[in-house]
Amino acid sequence: MAVWGASADDVWALASDGFRRWNGTSWYHHLPELPVRPWELADGALWGFAPDDIWAVGDDFAHWDGSSWSTVTAPIGVNDVWGAAQDDVWAVGAVDFEGGRVAHWNGFSWREFRAPETSWLTAVHGSAPDDVWAAGADGEVLHWNGLVWNLIWDAGDVRINDVRSGARDDAWLAGNDGLLAHWDGARWSTVERFTAHDIRALWTAPSGETWAVGTDGIALRWDGAHWSAGPSTALEGLRAVWGSAGDDVWAVGDQGNIVHWDGDRWRRMAGAFGGSLRDVWAIAVDDIWAVGERGRILHWDGAQWGSVPAPVQSPGSAIEELSAAWGASPSDVWAVGQQGAILHWDGAAWSASSSPRVWWSAIHGTAPNDVWCAGSGGAVQHRDGTEWREVPSGTVAWLRGVWAAAPDDAWAVGDDATVLRWNGAVWTGVPVEPAGEFSDVWAASSDDVWIAGSHDYDVVFLHWDGATWATYRPGARGNRESLFGFGPDDVWAAGDSGVFHWDGVAWTRDPCSPGAVTAIGGALPDDLWVVAGPGILRRRR
Predict the structure, then answer these.
(1) For residues 400 and 440, what is the distance between their CA atoms, to the nearest angstrom?
(2) CA–CA dist 148, 114 (Å, integer)
(3) Are strands 458-464 and 469-472 parallel, antiparallel or unpaired?
(4) Percent of the chain beyond pLDDT 90?
(5) In sequence order, which residues have a C-beta less than 8 Å from that of residue 337 and are 6 or more positions away?
(6) Which H or E element spans position 48?
(7) How many helices (H) and strands (E) does the chain have?
(8) CA dihedral sign of residues 96, 97, 103, 109
(9) pLDDT tens across 198-223, in order?
């Protein structure tokens, strides 16, 4: 991820699912379409001069003019970007996975600029047009004096991840294994290593106070005399940092985490829950569950999301991932996932059920005594209200979705064009075309069934009207889709290409689509929730 701000109430964060923007009160998903895929920028950098002049760089270059994003042709793949003026911008990176390269923006175009031979260049920053630093993956440090780039220092065989210059005689660089080095106007010198963790990013306040963040949630602070560790963030790895003042610092990192330093302590921001979310299920508008990685279980009470402790399956065995959730009532909710996890909420606490150690991908039912779960190796189990029992599916394909329309009519879909139907006694295969990879199924009735999946990475929707199958292609790319609906003319699909809606006539992309989405669900047509990979929940009303 990357982060940059124009002011304290206008901060941008970039992740693999697109942009999020801070307006001074809350984070929201920035909706204007990107001309490139966001994950091609997410491992690069974000930097700008003003709210209407921002660069996002990575495998591609994108520029924000205040109203829309546009692509800009660039000669190199970029890891970092910084500029002294709107017509004096430097980008560093590599070409074709080879040695380091430097490119310059003159206000009209990017062109490659001659620089000493180095490894991949990973960072660039300066204090003036003739005082710019660049650093590389093998410890090289370059300087631009206004005329030429020169190799100034070699930090040794260590990756430098960031460089930050506050003045001609005051610059910092940071890298792997806790590397920190300072430029005093005459030479670079390393400081005593405060941590063994990789330091990924730096930010310096106008006062000279400097922050360094990195793996394992490490956050270090330079107060002008020495480095110290900030209060524990209790987070995963941090990848980028920016601030408007010493008491207004933002850091972003793995799993979509966004945290804020207010001068006293770090706070995790709403919507960042430290793990990718996989599914959402609504009992009512004020009773919604979301589940995901590391056994994460979240609950919406109508006002806010909160984390609910998950049970331990067995002594010393933590749940690695929950894939799906379904509930019949506020006191009867199920969640399933990896390592055979089958969890139940009774209205007060979650408990674990014994299960074969397969990866359960989906769960659905019609009532407390009619619940199905499906998963890897064609595994299927049914609950009759008292216990779970295995039911032969007739396939070994990984089943990704299951939906029960009635006790004697259920559907399951999965890999290798697998479509199964339950008639009350046995599961039987149903041939369909095209033969794709199917990820979910939803039914309004026994003769109104939708299947979502992909064929040659093109999103496809198949519809059963009780007699024949029809195929719909919305013109999107992706290999995983989630389905949810409220009726025959109100069906939603969410996946790699965003959110789509079926109105009874055609599939169209929702104009408020937030980009790549993992799952969708809701209690009412005007109160939908989606979850995205990096722990983000978003509401559509």
Answers:
(1) 6
(2) 8
(3) antiparallel
(4) 42
(5) 278, 291, 295, 319, 320, 321, 322, 323, 324, 359, 360
(6) strand 45-50
(7) 0, 55
(8) positive
(9) 898 998 888 888 988 888 778 888 88
